[in-house]
Amino acid sequence: MGDYSFRGQRDDEDVLLVIKQNAWVFAKTGFYILIGANIVVFSFIMLGMSGIFSYLLAIFVIMVGILIVYKWYLWSNSIYILTNQRIIEIKQDKLFHRLIIEMELAMIQDISTEQKGAVQTFLNFGSIHIKTASSNAGMEMTDVTDPYETQQQIVKAKNLMKNDFKGKMEFRDNFGK
Length: 177
Prior knowledge:
alpha+beta; 4-stranded antiparallel β-sheet; 4 helices; 47% helix; elongated; disordered C terminus
């Protein structure tokens, strides 16, 4: 991941992992499209190939296109970045609303994973809950592919960071003597 960089990256910070939500998050959108397609088919049965049906079909196709592009935009602009110093969540909530949260690896107290239901279990995606010592601080990484493996990567990065810091402190102590 050495090639990946982002705005706000520190000079001594290396990107270890870039995580996107599982593509299964599009399933709800697909469900809505399926309902809309059923309405269009029902309209065709009731109205036949009339001018009203043609307008309904055109509106449906345009709305589906807009919905797919919108959902893809939100998905493609939402990522989690694990570096050797912190975890950064960049979440595109709406068209013009982006939320950026960062958490220092040193502040992490607890990491847990959760997979709800058969779909998440069979397709191996779920959530990672990260807590800090502060009661109000935390991060939830939702719909992450292979949440346990990602959790282990975060733990490994935290341990490497802690050992690197400890090694630097020992070096300073020994150098100062």
